[in-house]
Amino acid sequence: MIDQATTDAQGRIRRVALGDFVHRSALKFAERTAVVDGDTRMSYAELDARSSRLAHHLLASVGAGKQIGMLCQNSADMVVAYNGIHKAGCVWVPVNIRLDAGAIDYILRHAEVSAVVVDEALRAEPALAAVLEKLTVPLILTLSSADGPGDARVRTLAAAEAGQSSALPEVAIDSEQPALIMYTSGTTGNPKGAVHSHASVAAALMGNMVGFGITERDVFSGVLPLYHCAQHCLAATVHIAGGCVVVLRGFVPDEVRASMRKERYTGFTGLPMMYAALLADPAFRADSMRLAIYAMAPIPKPLIQQIAERMTPNVMLATGQTEMYPATMSFRPLEHPGLDANYWGASLAHNETAVMDDEGHLLGEGQPGEIVHRGANAMLGYFKDPQATAAAQRFGWHHTGDLGQWGPGGQLMFLDRKKDMIKTGGENVASVKVESVLLAHPGVAGVGVIGLPHPRWAEAVCAFVVKKPGADVDVAALEAHCRAQLGDYEVPKLIHFVDALPATSTGKVQKHRLRQQFEALAQKAWGDGT
Q1: What positions does the domain AMP-binding enzyme C-terminal occupy (predicted)?
Q2: pLDDT < 70 regions, the chain
Q3: Strands 139-142 and 115-119: what pairing?
């Protein structure tokens, strides 16, 4: 008979635990810089020690296995805190700080958090302060002043770490136990919490390290929010490899260009509009770069060419979902010049991808259907929502809600979100196809294409366009541009210029908000049914 001590020891030998990775990197690269945050340069030894001290505090104050909320903007303190949560065997619950107070309150309560790590400045905001006050759980303040606050349930991060051991805690962690709950941005109803295990996140990180070729020599950007799966998985991947992550509070082109030059970035991950803004300076070059990753939206070929000429020819699209910890697929546009900007490419090693019809049959090349994935990076399920979990995981695959089809050479082409496919006059129109055509016009900076109710066509293709500064472009010019490249039924029946598009914190256009804002305008435009 094997005793419990032997069982525990065997579990430690075999476990996959996210908190172990930074510890192991510190054993190999103790003095190497792990995080740059302004003037702060944190070594692996310091990151390991500080995150272990926080873990011991959490174990003493709330215990292992508890959900710990987080309301932080990017900082070295934030990196310390989420690694400490993982080392304690607790469950990290990062929250999008751009959400309204009601949504933040819902997430923290739904997740049943036992404590919240929050930036001191965010806690000072009245609406958020009211949410946190009602929760009555311990608060740990990051980016905080040296003096501790007077409230007994509130500590600074420094105070939480003070007097604690810097050794990796001896806590039982099962590879399949929850490591994080990340809430998806809800377009209808409340957001859902995708639960990931230590093993599912680790699988994505290992696959990313191989797929992106990340090593201890890399210096990667941290400009996207760390509470989002895309930036967290990239930062955590770099820290597995022993590289450096430069965290920034937000995207300010001049600041990012200066940081890239100073820190000699080898990798940058950003939204298409970020690349356009960086390259708007004709003098800007990034000669140290070896990899430029873009996400969330296609990039027009002229911009791809600029990235290749002035940053690096190694340009890659990476895709993924909160539910399938990213990345799931990658595409190198310069290696496939004959394929358009909406291709997603091929799967990374840790998962596989298929196209499926509504009955669960897998489809071949040229047959449109829903994009589905399966692999070690799949979520455990939605927190406290077995029905939504079953719907998302039917037929043994994760259902993305995206439509696609296989193209030449095993490359996957994204067609549209299921809910964003426009049905007009008996024809299906992919909104992303129309968007890619409009984005290729030299006067267009951004575009959102949606279908709005039409008395004759059921839905009409409508485009909402942001002009580039100083661009001389009008509706007639864009209509002519579209007619030259699209079928008649695909050409927008309404083109409307806007100052900005409603978007999430990661730059995704919120099409439900466009529909809410402009349905009345559209009805007025074609009141006679033409």
Answers
A1: 433-508
A2: 1-10, 146-150, 185-189, 505-506, 527-530
A3: parallel
Q: Look at residue 1 in the predicted model and tell me its pLDDT.
A: 45
CA distance 53 to 57: 6
What is the pLDDT, as a whole number, of residue 10? 61
- How many angstroms separate the CA atoms of 90 and 115, rounded? 11
What would the CATH number be for the domain defined by 421-525?
3.30.300.30
**CATH code reported for the domain at 43-197:** 3.40.50.980
The amino acid at residue 45 is A
Task: Say what the pLDDT of residue 523 is.
Answer: 78
Phi then psi for residue 350, to 5 deg, are -85, -5
Residue with tokens 């740059």: 36
Helix (H) or strand (E) holding 201: helix 198-212
Copy the structure tokens of residue 47.
């990151």
Q: DSSP label at 380?
A: S
Tally of CA atoms within 13 A in the half-sphere of 112 that contains its CB:
6
Q: What is the pTM of this model?
A: 0.86
Pick the CATH number of 251-417 from 3.40.630.10, 2.60.120.920, 3.65.10.10, 3.40.50.12780: 3.40.50.12780
